[in-house]
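Work Package 3 (structural annotation) set out to generate three-dimensional models for the target panel prioritized at the project kickoff. During this period the team completed the workflow that converts sequence records into discrete structure tokens, so that structures can be stored uniformly alongside our sequence database. As a representative example, we reproduce one entry of 396 residues exactly as it appears in the project archive.
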Amino acid sequence: MVSSARSFGVRFWSLIGATFFGFLGLGTVLPGLAPHVRLDLGGSDQTVGFVIGIFSVIALVSRFVSGPLADRRGRKVAFVAGLISCAFAGGAYLLPLGIAGAYLGRILQGFGEACLYTGAAAWVVEIAGVDRSAQALGFLSSGIWGGVSAGPVIGQWLGSFERAAMFQIIAALGAAATLLLINEDFHPEPHPHGRALVPRSLIGPGLAIGFVNMHYPVITGFLILHLARHGNSGPAAFSAYAGVILLSRFFLGGLPDRIQPALTFYFGLIAMAIGLSGIALAPPPFAAIGMTALLGFGFSFPWSAVASVVLKRTPPGARGSAVSVLSAFYDLFVGTSSFAAGAIAARFGYPAAFWMAAIALSASAVAGWFVFRGPVPAVSEGVEGLDLVTEGIDVG
């Protein structure tokens, strides 16, 4: 693994580092955001919800801008634009605008995250080679999860929301400065107008990813509350979940490149189903931590398996758009399942929300059949006649 990691080169790891610092800045402001809106700015609980939720709405809409931007202007342009937007978000939090400043900061963060991830994902795949796309995306995910996990720790250590906002500015600008020193081999390709916003070829992959991620708001919203009644192992279980995801994506993210991606996809679903079912049954603390770790382990594989297949079937000039559309499905399903999980938990109890997430995996399994049933080319450069070529991804 060490020799394999070294073979990616300095440019690749510089991109992973820039991604880490971009998401580190995003994560730093999260612990203090709700208290800042509620206590410092005098907002209501409903205002807190709206301020936090507007990020997902903007990120979802921005996916359909960030993809064409990366494909037409370059991965570096999209990546840097996302980081600059995140830096402006930190500045917006510091302006004397009251609640409007909090909304503006979250809007800029939503747009910035969409551009940041789209540019980073398309760029690391092209540097690593599309034949190693799953491993490249696994390393990228490790950088993201590392930043998101370390950010709140730094935010708490800094001691105030204003300092956290300043740190976000510094982290984003530092990452952007790093990118400006990296050469990009980008050659734009023609993008005819009138293409479909979401091509039929991406509906199956998008649904497969969307249903897999329905468990995420359940874990973040109800794991600690559910396990509080059964040994209070929630915090340790969530740490195990996040830690296993980070490590397995780093060390095992390349499995879909070496074996059939369908195998890793369905193995991941099975592990997730066992983990979610075990958690729903309210196990004792050690078993709960083990089930949650198993859930995180299984969750490490479906995204890279699906994304690697899609990117290998996609011409280079459409990969940024493909990544953005798949990410849009993630945003849509996570957002809607948040409301569904809340309603189900309120009516039937916390275990029912975990059963909902487990049942959703069966829908992902069906959608996955449409993803993996066709041949997967080793390299898609120069491939003609695929759906993404004839249908395209464009905002018009």
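The longest helix spans residues 99-128.
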